[in-house]
Specification:
Blueprint: H1 5-32, H2 64-74, H3 95-103, H4 116-132, E1 144-147, H5 150-171, E2 180-184, H6 189-197, E3 201-205, H7 216-221, E4 227-231, H8 245-259, E5 265-268, H9 276-279, E6 292-298, E7 310-314, E8 326-328, E9 335-337, H10 347-384, E10 388-390, E11 399-404, H11 406-409, H12 416-424, E12 432-434, E13 443-448, H13 455-472, H14 480-486
């Protein structure tokens, strides 16, 4: 049957878009050989049957959906962040905090002319943190700075102590070429970095089975006129314990009075700075102590902000050397900055200030106390297992370590490195590692309990630990790790511990 001219035009109109799209697709593919049409299904694209670029940038573009999926799929097999009990960094923030940070990801903190309110928020955060630590400073704006993490904050505290020491020595006409710093062997690697980069002798007080934190007497025995500061730790990375900072301050006060030195304390409170004010407010570790001149912490640990934020606060402005402030005017105004980095994201600052508003003292207290309660629950359950022995009797931060029971270990056919691997198969990241020098024959495992871990998750972890141990106890022959242990060979864990 013949079609009318109207029907012919209609059919052509319906057909032509398909013809044109096919022609366009053919042309694009011919010209580029790789560009995927926008209508192509993600897993129907050519990109999904070729390896991702590793050495050379691709010649042609692809769709945002495919690029997103390629990057997303690359991380799919990794442990879910909340199952990573090795890390100290925050892995959970609420929906509004996450939204706020995502919306501010394009803001450069350093450009205070364009984003002045971010600078104000940063100052408010410093004020709040300084007051949490019982600052004696009376000004409207307390003396502090932010960093990319607590490592930068530690370095700023160390540099300030070094510059103050150098200035005193120069005024007295004494040499400044042999500075040293004293702290325990339970330090985080940032202090090794700091001392190496600034050519400062690092004097480490050994940890022993008897002295599991910094021994004040041993620390003072290592001090002399060239000591820029002593660094006690609130929340030792290796063990979760706290140095007795109040006792150290009292001993240091007597030492300084006797020698005429002015050796200060810089407290590395990367973990404890946001724990102690809420779980143990009566404990004196902060600016209530005479010789504590600066404190650093990590906003992205128990400050409850996603990674990329550290804070340092000085007792008052007189302890921040003027040499650490740098002014630039090429951003449209004269801007003064204290820090080792320059450009940095503002999102973390907004996240920190949001937390302070949203949670308040009550919210931080409840979260940190819940973390402590779950940590103590896990500590008690693991301590009851015949094969294990907790390193310390009490939990003072939301983390703890344990080892194989000494008697059990004599006949065991497995090690904690085997348990680490077994838990990893279930998605858990629980690190196994040896303790610092002098006690490095002790192999431990560690759990860090953060916001986002519930009692149910703890029970699932404990069940997986118990199941793995039952399987190990069926072994007829020792594992490779056990054989290496019996040969006294050095073994390394497969999980990052800091």
């Amino acid at each position: 049957m013949a079609l009318s001219s109207h029907h012919t035009r209609l059919c052509v109109a319906q057909f032509m878009p398909r013809v044109w799209n096919n022609h366009l697709k053919f042309t694009i593919m011919n010209k580029t050989k790789s560009v995927t049409n926008a209508t192509t299904a993600v897993y129907g694209s050519s990109e999904m049957v070729h390896p991702a670029p590793t050495m050379i940038i691709p010649e042609h573009m692809t769709t945002p959906e495919i690029a997103y999926r390629m990057v997303k799929d690359e991380t799919y097999a990794q442990t879910q962040p909340r199952l990573n009990l090795a890390t100290f960094v925050t892995t959970y923030m609420d929906e509004y905090a996450t939204r706020l940070m995502n919306e501010s990801v394009a803001i450069n903190f350093i450009d205070q002319t364009e984003y002045p309110r971010v600078a104000v928020m940063s100052g408010r955060c410093i004020n709040i943190i300084a007051n949490l630590w019982n600052t004696p400073e009376k000004g409207d704006w307390k003396c502090g700075a932010l960093g990319i993490g607590s490592s930068e904050a530690c370095m700023l505290g160390g540099v300030a102590a070094w510059l103050r020491w150098r200035e005193r020595r120069m005024k007295a006409g004494k040499p400044t070429d042999k500075p040293n710093l004293v702290m325990s062997a339970g330090m985080q690697v940032v202090w090794e970095k700091f001392c190496q980069l600034w050519q400062i002798e690092l004097r480490q007080v050994p940890l022993t089975r008897k002295n599991r934190t910094l021994d004040a007497k041993e620390a003072l025995a290592m001090c002399d006129e060239n000591t820029i500061c002593i660094v006690p730790i609130a929340g030792v990375t290796w063990t979760g314990l706290n140095d007795d900072i109040e006792a150290l301050d009292a001993a240091l006060d007597e030492y300084n009075a006797k020698t005429g030195y002015e050796i200060p304390l810089h407290v590395d409170a990367a973990s404890g700075g946001f724990i102690l004010p809420f779980t143990s407010p009566e404990t004196k570790w902060d600016f209530r102590l005479k010789w504590v001149k600066s404190i650093s912490t990590s906003g992205h640990k128990f400050g409850l902000v996603y990674p990329g934020l550290g804070w340092v606060v000085w007792r008052d402005k007189s302890y921040l050397p003027k040499e650490m402030s740098f002014s630039v005017n090429y951003l449209g105004a004269n801007i003064t900055q204290v820090g080792l980095n320059f450009s940095r994201p503002a999102a973390q600052v907004l996240g920190q200030y949001y937390n302070f508003i949203r949670l308040g003292r009550e919210g931080y207290r409840s979260i940190q106390q819940n973390c402590m309660e779950i940590a103590r629950y896990c500590h008690e359950r693991i301590g009851r297992m015949a094969c294990f022995e907790n390193y310390s009797e009490e939990v003072v931060n939301p983390l703890f370590v344990w080892s194989l029971n000494e008697e059990y270990n004599r006949t065991a056919k497995w090690t904690l490195y085997d348990l680490q691997s077994a838990l990893q198969q279930s998605g858990w990241m629980v690190p196994a590692y040896s303790l610092p020098k002098n006690i490095d024959d002790i192999v431990v495992m560690r759990i860090v309990v953060r916001q986002g871990m519930s009692r149910d998750m703890a029970d699932m972890l404990l069940k997986d630990i118990e199941s793995a141990v039952k399987e190990f106890e069926k072994l007829k022959y020792p594992t490779q790790s056990r054989l290496a242990y019996e040969k006294r060979e050095k073994q390394l864990g497969k999980v990052f511990t800091h």
